[in-house]
Amino acid sequence: MTELKYTDLELIPGKIDAAIKFYKDRQVRLSKSKKPLNEDIDERIRTLQKLYWTIKDHEEDFVTAAFKDYHRSRNETINIELVPLYNAILELIERVPKEIKPKTLKVGTMTHRFGKTVLEKIALGTVLLISPFNFPILLALEPLAGAIACGNSLIFKPSELTPECAKLMEKVCQETFEPGQVETVQGSIDETTVLLDSGKFDKIFYTGSPAVGAIIAEKAGKSLTPCVLELGGKSPVFVTKNMPKSKLDTAVRRIFFGSFGNSGQICVAPDYVLCHESIYEEFVASCEKILKEFFPSISSETEYTHLIHEGAVERINTVLDSTKGQKIIAGHSEKLPARCIPPILLTNVSWDDASMQGENFGPILPIMKYFDLDEAIDNVVSKHDTPLVQYIFSSSTNEVDHISTRIRSGACVVGDTIIHVVIPEAPFGGVGNSGYGSYHGSYTFRAFTHERTVFKQPFWVDFLLNVRYPPFASSKTKIMRATMENKPNFDRNGCKTYSLKIIGLMILSSVFLGFYLTGESNGLD
């Protein structure tokens, strides 16, 4: 692994100015086009197509870079990073025309009825994108592609903890984009601080920890810069008394897929299991069996992702040294590489266990026994509220509804784990401590554009609207209220009422129906 060269602090303001200038110059150029919208859409699509093929051309380079950074499994780099990224870019290309073209809104008020109301999605300007280490490619280039699809320029700050991926992504950006369209800043805290303190961005998109997210939100607030914060959280798994025992093995496989994939370094990883006492022993037995099935013997040669750095190893080892739970460890050779920790189950843990104090973000899975569902939910809400996702394994719809109604979460998945993240039509984002804002599919266009209302009023309607002009009189007020104020369809007790307009329509309909039926009757005679 070669050292990552950080961007000179003195050069960062120039990069920010270059990105801002690119956006403004592009808007000036488009404004002079005969068909600015069509040209704009064509340019965005062509740029995304170029990005797609540039990434494709460097696919093996990305696999190699991720392996060098943290012994990333080839399977995981391809199947849970690159393939979802390819699909996301193709989805954006398909969506650009229909998302960006203005939409005419149907309005009912007399004041606006004869005008034209249009909703436009306009580019925000220049976006700051700060990406994480755990999915260094997908969680960097997907929002980057989204910002480009929405017509923005960017400052891109990849994670310094995955230097090989960071350098390769900078190379991809240089090969794909025009100077100023995407400017890459390499670095850590100092470089990020310079970016945030500039106060020149139109949006900040950050993926990472709640602690850093709070700092970014505070700094962004000084310049009224809106943010999307994709944060983490301690995501629970409920295995209830209504989970069929015949399906336990399948449930465990799905839980392990989320918990131990990427060596547990996934923001939506199942962080701990709450299992009902009636099936607890069977569940733990199934966990032991599937652990041997998935990881019979991990060695230095096994295709198994390692932890990102020594600090992460120390953090996990501290939990393992302090836990009072019983450890069930996956099979492994005696000597493993320094950053390789095999999957470990922690059974019979309690809420005050070391593994239950914060997000584990590693290959350990605490399993707790619960007796009363509401008591378990109370503990989730009081100790680890608003997780990024909650997972529920139960065959009872009422039970699922009960849990999901009480626990606020960014998402809720029933019967599986983590795969909701790659549903292209659904938003991905947190709530409360797990973040705010969302993206994916059409929600990406909400994240990186401003929805602007454009209203065009013809001059000829002024004779209908002149009651709004002074001098005012009671007659004008009555006319304005009669034409503008809507009436409720309920009374003070909540009972349904009918407006005079509806009653009139019902009477007219009855009269016409009567005439029609009378005529039909006469015709039969």
UniProtKB/TrEMBL annotation:
Assigned keywords, A-Z: Oxidoreductase
> Could you tell me which Gene3D superfamilies the record lists for this protein?
Aldehyde Dehydrogenase, Chain A, domain 1, Aldehyde Dehydrogenase, Chain A, domain 2
Annotated GO biological process? aldehyde metabolic process
User: Where exactly are the transmembrane stretches of this chain?
Assistant: none
Q: Which residues form the Aldehyde dehydrogenase domain?
A: 40-454
- Catalytic residues in the record: E230, C267
Which Pfam families does its entry note?
Answer: Aldedh (PF00171)
Any one cellular component term from GO for this entry? Answer: cytoplasm
- Asked if the record carries the keyword Oxidoreductase, the reply is yes
Q: Which InterPro entries does the UniProt record give?
A: Ald_DH/histidinol_DH, Ald_DH_C, Ald_DH_CS_CYS, Ald_DH_CS_GLU, Ald_DH_N, Aldehyde_DH_dom, Aldehyde_DH_NAD(P)
State the source organism's domain of life: Eukaryota
Gene Ontology molecular-function annotations: aldehyde dehydrogenase (NAD+) activity
Report the sequence similarity comment from the record: Belongs to the aldehyde dehydrogenase family.
The protein's matches in PANTHER family, at most eight in alphabetical order, are given as: ALDEHYDE DEHYDROGENASE, ALDEHYDE DEHYDROGENASE TYPE III, ISOFORM Q
What name goes with this protein?
Answer: Aldehyde dehydrogenase
> Which source organism does the UniProt entry give?
Kluyveromyces dobzhanskii CBS 2104
Q: What is the lineage of its organism?
A: Eukaryota, Fungi, Dikarya, Ascomycota, Saccharomycotina
